[in-house]
Amino acid sequence: MESVSGLRYAHPCIEARVDPELVMAEFQLNINSKLVKVEAPAEEPLLSVLRDRLDLTGTKYGCGEGQCGACTVLLNGRAARSCLTPISAAANARIVTIEGLADGGDLSAVQEAFLEESALQCGYCTSGMIVAATALLSRIPKPSDDQIIEAINGNICRCGTYPRILEAIKRASHWSVSGGSQ
Questions:
Q1: How many domains does the chain have?
Q2: What is the pLDDT of residues 76-87, one digit of tens each?
Q3: Which sign does the torsion angle of CA 121, 124, 130, 135 carry?
Q4: Residues 177, 182, 114, 169: is their CA dihedral positive or negative?
Q5: Is 27 helix (H, G, I), strand (E, B) or coil?
Q6: Between 42 and which of 77, 88, 96, 123 could a Cys-Cys bridge form, CB atoms 3.0 to 4.6 Å apart?
Q7: Is the domain of 24 the same as that of 94?
Q8: CA-CA-CA-CA torsion for 91, 97, 99, 100, nearest 10 degrees?
Q9: C-alpha distances in angstroms, 45 versus 55, 62, 121, 137, 166?
């Protein structure tokens, strides 16, 4: 188990939300199947804990309001906006970030499909899209186009690669969600 403490924020919008006068508490988190201890204010957003305290920077800061999906992680298998989730609410959950989807050096089926379909350009939305797609495919292994669109609704792609994202998720649905391409 690792112990992480300190107070620094990569984005001023997160820093403005965390009152430095708040009492620090210790939380045990299960992140990507690894138990980690973190000292943070109870209301600190999970996003800032992941990025600024644990150096897991695959989860992106987008809008800070839960509207863009760049910060999506899995909490107990369900897609959640980490910019809106206080660390206190995530302390007893299984948290999976984009870094936790790959198995060793093997990409997940969704990650592999995104590469094969060229479903990323700038890459900023990619981690949130992949995590949201992973959550969908774990619930509905063979989703319809409408189910895919509903699942990624709210995940904004600034480059407009939605048709390729849709194709990537359909491709991944034909493969095992837990492994690479088949």
A1: 2
A2: 999 999 999 999
A3: negative
A4: negative
A5: strand
A6: 88
A7: yes
A8: 70
A9: 14, 13, 27, 26, 30
List 95's β-bridge partners, or say none.
Answer: 31, 75
Is the same domain home to 50 and 17?
yes
- What distances in angstroms separate CA 128 from CA 20, 78, 149, 176, 178, one per listed residue? 29, 12, 14, 20, 17
Asked if 53 contacts 2 with a C-beta cutoff of 8 angstroms, the reply is no
CATH code of residue 83:
3.10.20.30
Residues 23-75: tens digit of each pLDDT: 899 999 999 999 999 999 999 999 999 999 999 999 999 999 999 999 999 99
* pTM confidence score: 0.85
The Cα diameter of the chain in Å comes to 52
Retrieve residue 139's tokens: 């619930």
Query: Do 26 and 55 fall within a single domain?
Result: yes
